[in-house]
Design a protein that fits this description.
The structure is a single chain. This protein is mostly helical. It has seven helices and no strands. The chain is globular, with a radius of gyration of 16 Å.
């Protein structure tokens, strides 16, 4: 039986779900190993292949965030939000970047929006964990 095109792929070339997942996972593996240039290259390539998917943009944001480039991470998360306005995960990640940028009120707005969009989703769980970490004082204080 032939594999059907992936919903996440929505790609320029036919890309089945499994190869799309392997491609994205390889970006996260490079990221986990600290090979930021290679991870970025994978995610940028995936974004070119899957221009209507927010998933590669979240990966690009993760690479920037891991390097402390919170403003660039936020830019990537905003692109992901535009691609998937009803997805909670881009909003939660945007909230995280905003927290680390010291923009707490804006961050909390994003985190609460993530929880409202998909109360049982991964984005809501991330948002809740970030709010709890902030309340516990585990995250950096706002920049002055």
């Amino acid at each position: 039986m032939a594999e059907t095109s992936s919903e996440i792929a929505n790609s320029l070339v036919p890309l089945a779900r499994q190869p799309a997942m392997v491609l994205l996972e390889s970006g996260y593996l490079w990221l986990d190993m600290g090979h930021f240039d290679k991870a970025r290259e994978v995610f940028v390539g995936a974004a070119a292949l899957m221009p209507k998917s927010e998933v590669p943009q979240i990966g690009i944001g993760a690479v920037e965030f891991a390097q402390g480039h919170h403003d660039k991470a936020l830019q990537a998360y905003r692109v992901a939000q535009r691609l998937a306005p009803l997805s909670s995960l881009p909003r939660a990640h945007a909230g995280e970047a905003l927290l680390f940028m010291g923009k707490v009120p804006e961050a909390l707005k994003e985190l609460k929006a993530a929880m409202d969009l998909e109360p049982e989703g991964d984005g809501a769980r991330l948002a809740q964990a970030l709010i709890q970490a902030k309340e516990a004082g585990a995250l950096p204080p706002p920049k002055k």
